[in-house]
Every structure is written in C-alpha cells, then in structure tokens.
C-alpha cells in the first residue's frame, strides 16, 4: 500500500463518524491525465442538516472550554498534519495537479494557521472602559459567534480549510466544512487527523458531495449557522450574500482578483523578474492572488520583457509528481478553453506572444507571455486563472496607479521600486487589501489576508482573522 493510501477516505465525517447518505458515488480524477483517483460517496442536504445539527449541539460545551484546552487539541492536529506531510502532499498533487513541491509547501502553510490560532486561543482579549458615572463599570468581551459554515475551493484544498476553521475552533466556534468536489480527498485526510487529534463529537464536521449550490444554500439559510466563510468567485460570493440576508449572517468572503504587478523604472529588474515568476505561475496561475496584469515602465519594458520571457521559457511543464516540475495541469478542460480564448483575443487586438501561447493537450497550457497588452483585451478586466502573463506599458506613476485601480477587484497587488517615497505613496494609493513591495509571495499566517471592493470582505490570518469569528458584548455593571 502506498504511503498516502491510509489517509484516503470516501465518506463524510459528521458528529465523530464516517457516514454516507446514499450508495451513489462520484469520481475524483487527476487533472494531469484524467485518470480516476477514487470515488466519493455522494450525499444530499439531509446529511448536511445532520452536520449542522451536530455542530449546533456541540457548541455550548466547546465554547465553555478554556483557550488552553482548545489549544491542546489544535496543537495535536498540527503535529499530526506535519507528521503526515508527504502523504497529504501526494494526495493534493494527485487531485489538484499542483507540483509536489508546492503541495509540500501548502501543507506547511496550512498547518501554520492551526499552530498560530492555537496560540491565539489564549489571547482573545476584551476591554475595560471608564464608567460614565462614578458607580458604573463598563466591560467589553468577545464571544464565539456559533456554528461556522466553511465553503472552500480546490486550488488550496488544505490551506483554505485551516485558514478558516483554525480561528473558528480556537475561539470556541464549531464548524461544518464543505470542500470542493474536485479535491475532497485532501480535505477528508484533514478530517481523519482532526478525529485523531481529539475534537469532541460535533465540533468538527466535513460534508462531501458534488452539489455545491444546494449545500451552500442550506448553510446560508440555516438559523443554526451563525457565520459563513467562503473562498471562490465573486459571482458565487454575491449569491451567498443574497442567500444569507434572511438570517443576517456574519460573512467572510475572499473572492476574485485582478492583481497588478507594477515595475517602476528604478526597480531591480532581476529581482522583479524573480518575483514576477513566483507571483504569476504558482499553481499554474490558478490562485486568487496571482498576477493578472504586469504594468511595466516604458524605459525598462524591453529589458523586463526579455528577462521575464527567458525565465518563463525555463519553467518545466508536467505531472506534478515529476522531478523538477514547475507548471502542472489546469484543473479542467474549461480552464484550457478559457486560456485559449484569452490568447486569441489578445492576438486579434495586437498582442504579441513572446513565449508559450498554446495548449499542449487537454490538460496542460504553456506558460505564456504576451507583449503590447492593452486595456481593450479581455484579461484587462477578467481574472485569467491560468499561466498567461500580459505586459502593459506605462510612463508615469499616476498612469500606473490609474491602470492598477481600473478594476472592480481589490485583492492583491505588487510593486517593485527602490524609491522609498514612491513605495509608500503608491502603496497607499492602490485600492487593494494587500500590497507586496519588492516581494511576490505575501501570504503568511501572521498577516491579514483579504480584499476590498468586489474581492470580498473580512480578513483571514493574524489577530484580525480571529476577530471575524467573535461577537462583541458590552456589559454595564451598575451600583458599584
């Protein structure tokens, strides 16, 4: 038996048990070749309702535990994930396609949220406020919101779960997780290790099926679910907002992006190229913070384009389990078709392909660089979510800022400059929740991750991330 096989599970994990509602199953395939990895027992919303009921029943006892008690279980979960790192990463690569090195990195990244928020469980502080009369005292405390519904995507099948549920569990919430049907095996491996870590029954629940719309609707409309945390498209995020309106839920939404990467004339070009490759081609460009538009100063445009193109041409394409692979497959045929459409549209409007530009087969698309990009091209306003890097020109700081902000999205942004004044001025002017300055990889458990405008609301990670899972209660003590 392969090392990872012991972590393969095919049922939902609800109220401390592995259960299936139907005998019907759906297949999970490897995006690198379309081969079947395994089958998952499908379930309907009746089983999801049982998960909600279990989480709701477990909430009073779980929230009553001390932060130190919750931390002990979270720490055990963290240790189990780290101990099974290679097996989990292999499962992740099989079902998501990302290179094994990236999967190994995601296991570390995802586990870091569990460790971080385990520590933060003991630091959910409140305030005392001076009384407004001599005989009154004012105290403010934070309490857990209740049951949290977590809806997670396929592109980070481990980290998007831990980034949501670790703060929820740390503060005293119970959780119902609905992972993507494209990558359920990674999620269920996490559930197995959570079970081993010792979470009480009903605290940690994971529901799997291939019907995301009905699952999301039930969680949004349930009176027993107090908060929804979702990562995915802006369109679906808007739908969840509408479905949650009737119960006035708290929402954390991490939605679409259109990240600009600005290279100013005084930038270290070699450093910018290195950052550009990292920020664009991780997971074959299939991340929400991947660069969508490269804005390059006219005076360094040709130098950057030449060096960047050469670096992109050196990227190795292939099955994520292969040695030295940098670019894995796209998740499905629709993604391939979308990339073809972006390239064709750019060429029809004057864009010049400097590298790549073609699908190798039904699974892989070449890492692509397109020069002479213009605002009329489709990728100027639409998220690419693939390995295509369009290069736009600009001449002034004001023009770069205006181009960067010319989008409904506001998640991540990047800029490269050696001018301290410029770095502050431009960063403050960019309408984005996150700015990477001379750095292409900005995600970390210690900093708040999230966007503005149509890229969502709320923050994940850091001390700010735990606040989104609490309610503030004010207590006035009179006649003291």
How would you concisely characterize the structure shown here?
With 480 residues, this protein is an alpha/beta fold. Helix content is 39%, strand content 21%. It folds into two domains: 3-255 and 455-476, 3-Layer(aba) Sandwich (Aldehyde Dehydrogenase, Chain A, domain 1), CATH 3.40.605; 259-444, 3-Layer(aba) Sandwich (Aldehyde Dehydrogenase, Chain A, domain 2).
Annotate the secondary structure layout:
Layout: E1 12-14, E2 17-19, E3 25-29, E4 36-41, H1 45-64, H2 67-83, H3 85-96, H4 100-120, E5 127-129, E6 137-144, E7 147-151, H5 159-171, E8 174-178, H6 184-197, E9 204-206, H7 212-221, E10 225-231, H8 234-244, E11 250-254, E12 259-263, H9 269-281, E13 291-297, H10 301-313, H11 333-348, E14 352-355, E15 368-371, E16 388-394, H12 397-405, E17 409-410, E18 412-416, H13 420-429, E19 434-437, E20 452-453, E21 456-457, H14 462-467, E22 470-477
Parallel strand pairs: 7-8, 7-10, 8-9, 10-11, 12-13, 12-18, 13-16, 15-16, 18-19
Antiparallel strand pairs: 1-2, 3-4, 5-6, 6-22, 11-21, 14-15, 17-20
Helix pairs in contact: 1-7, 2-4, 2-5, 2-6, 3-4, 3-6, 4-5, 7-8, 9-10
General description of the model:
The protein is an alpha/beta fold. The protein has two domains: 3-255 and 455-476, Aldehyde Dehydrogenase, Chain A, domain 1 (3-Layer(aba) Sandwich); 259-444, Aldehyde Dehydrogenase, Chain A, domain 2, CATH 3.40.309. 39% of the residues lie in helices and 21% in strands. It contains 14 helices and 22 strands. It has helices spanning 45-64, 67-83, 85-96, 100-120, 159-171, 184-197, 212-221, 234-244, 269-281, 301-313, 333-348, 397-405, 420-429, 462-467, and strands spanning 12-14, 17-19, 25-29, 36-41, 127-129, 137-144, 147-151, 174-178, 204-206, 225-231, 250-254, 259-263, 291-297, 352-355, 368-371, 388-394, 409-410, 412-416, 434-437, 452-453, 456-457, 470-477. Strands 14-15-16-13-12-18-19 form a seven-stranded mixed β-sheet, sandwiched between helices. A six-stranded mixed β-sheet has the order 9-8-7-10-11-21, sandwiched between helices. Strand 18, helix 13 and strand 19 form a beta-alpha-beta unit. Helix 1 crosses helix 7 (212-221) and helix 7 packs parallel to helix 8. The longest helix is centred in the N-terminal third of the chain and has 21 residues, at 100-120. The chain is globular. The mean pLDDT is 97.
């Amino acid at each position: 038996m392969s090392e990872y096989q012991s972590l393969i599970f095919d049922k939902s994990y609800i109220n401390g048990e592995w259960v299936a509602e139907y005998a019907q199953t759906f297949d999970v395939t490897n995006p690198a070749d379309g081969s079947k990895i395994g089958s998952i027992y499908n379930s309907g919303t009746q089983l999801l309702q049982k998960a909600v009921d279990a989480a709701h029943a477990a909430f009073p006892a779980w929230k009553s535990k001390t932060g130190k008690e919750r931390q002990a279980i979270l720490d055990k979960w963290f240790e189990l994930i780290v101990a099974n790192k290679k097996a989990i990463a292999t499962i992740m690569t099989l079902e998501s396609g990302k290179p094994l090195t990236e999967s190994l990195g995601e296991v570390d990244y995802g586990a870091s949220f569990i460790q971080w928020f385990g520590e933060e469980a003991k630091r959910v502080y409140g305030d005392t406020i001076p009384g407004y009369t001599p005989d009154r005292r004012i105290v403010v405390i934070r309490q857990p919101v209740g049951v949290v519904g977590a809806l997670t995507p396929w592109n980070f099948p481990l980290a998007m779960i831990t980034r949501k549920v670790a703060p929820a569990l740390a503060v005293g919430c119970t959780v119902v997780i609905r992972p993507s049907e494209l990558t359920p095996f990674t999620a269920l491996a996490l559930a197995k290790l959570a079970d081993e870590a010792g979470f009480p029954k009903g605290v940690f629940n994971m529901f799997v099926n291939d019907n995301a719309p009905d699952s999301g609707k039930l969680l949004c409309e349930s009176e027993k679910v107090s908060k929804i945390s979702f990562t995915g498209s802006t369109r679906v995020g808007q739908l969840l907002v509408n479905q949650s309106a009737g119960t006035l839920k708290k929402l954390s939404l991490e939605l679409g992006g259109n990240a600009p990467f600005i290279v100013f004339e005084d930038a270290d070009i070699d450093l910018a190229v290195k950052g550009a490759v990292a920020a664009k081609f991780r997971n074959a460009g299939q991340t929400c913070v991947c660069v969508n538009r490269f804005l390059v100063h006219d005076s360094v445009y040709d130098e950057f384009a030449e060096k960047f193109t050469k670096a992109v041409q050196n990227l190795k394409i292939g099955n994520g389990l292969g040695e030295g692979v940098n670019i894995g497959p796209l998740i499905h045929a629709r993604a391939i078709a979308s990339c073809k459409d972006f390239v064709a549209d750019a060429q029809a409007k004057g864009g010049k392909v400097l590298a790549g530009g073609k699908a190798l087969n039904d699974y892989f698309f070449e890492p692509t660089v397109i020069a002479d990009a213009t605002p009329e091209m489709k990728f100027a306003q639409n998220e690419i979510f693939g390995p295509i890097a369009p290069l736009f020109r600009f001449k002034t700081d004001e023009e770069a800022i205006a181009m960067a902000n010319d989008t409904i999205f506001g998640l991540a942004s990047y800029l490269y400059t050696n001018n301290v004044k410029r770095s502050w001025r431009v960063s403050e002017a960019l309408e984005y929740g996150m700015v990477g300055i001379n750095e292409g990889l900005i995600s970390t458990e210690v900093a708040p991750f999230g966007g503005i405008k149509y890229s969502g609301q709320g923050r994940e990670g850091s001390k700010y991330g735990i606040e989104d899972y609490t309610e503030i209660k004010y207590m006035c003590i009179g006649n003291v």
